[in-house]
């Protein structure tokens, strides 16, 4: 009986280069403009998903504020602050790398989201 469970398969990062390559493979049958449109949607949704995770971590930090009066929890708060800061910078770097990988500019995503997409 061969059981292979991979935790990382369950919690996949949508902005990982391997994920982007798999997405490219999945949309390869579409026209160039349709591929571009799907990439913009993918990037927007992936960014929203990661920002939701950051918001949850930030919310957890706010919940812990009443415990700040107890000094024994201070190292834990420093750890949470460090994790929040590191997660934010990592997410921004991953988004930038994904944009570079697909040759997409921030302006294109903003234009697509606002409905004024005129770049083809």
Question: What is the secondary structure topology, with strand pairs?
Answer:
Elements: H1 7-10, H2 17-26, H3 32-63, H4 74-102, H5 106-114
Helix pairs in contact: 3-4, 3-5
Please write the string of helix (H) and strand (E) elements: HHHHH
Tell me, rounded to a whole number, the average pLDDT: 77
Q: How large a portion of the residues is in β-strands, by DSSP E? A: under 5%
Q: List low-pLDDT spans.
A: 1-9
Helix vs. strand class: mainly alpha
Number of alpha- plus pi-helical segments: 5
Instruction: Estimate the helix proportion, in percent.
Output: over 70%
Distance between the termini: 51 Å
Number of strands: 0
* CA-based shape: elongated
Radius of gyration: 19 Å
The biggest sheet amounts to: none
Structural features, described:
This protein has 120 residues and is mainly α. The chain is 70% helix and 0% strand. The longest helix is centred in the middle third of the chain and has 32 residues, at 32-63.
């Amino acid at each position: 009986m061969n059981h292979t469970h991979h935790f990382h398969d369950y919690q996949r990062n949508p902005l990982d280069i391997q994920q982007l390559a798999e997405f490219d493979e999945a949309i390869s049958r579409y026209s160039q403009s349709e591929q571009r449109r799907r990439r913009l949607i993918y990037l927007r949704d992936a960014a929203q998903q990661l920002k939701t995770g950051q918001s949850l971590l930030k919310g957890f930090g706010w919940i812990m504020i009443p415990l700040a009066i107890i000094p024994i929890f201070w190292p834990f708060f420093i750890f949470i602050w460090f994790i929040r800061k590191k997660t934010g910078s990592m997410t921004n770097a991953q988004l930038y790398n994904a944009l570079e990988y697909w040759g997409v500019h921030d302006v294109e995503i903003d234009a697509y989201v606002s409905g004024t997409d005129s770049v083809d």
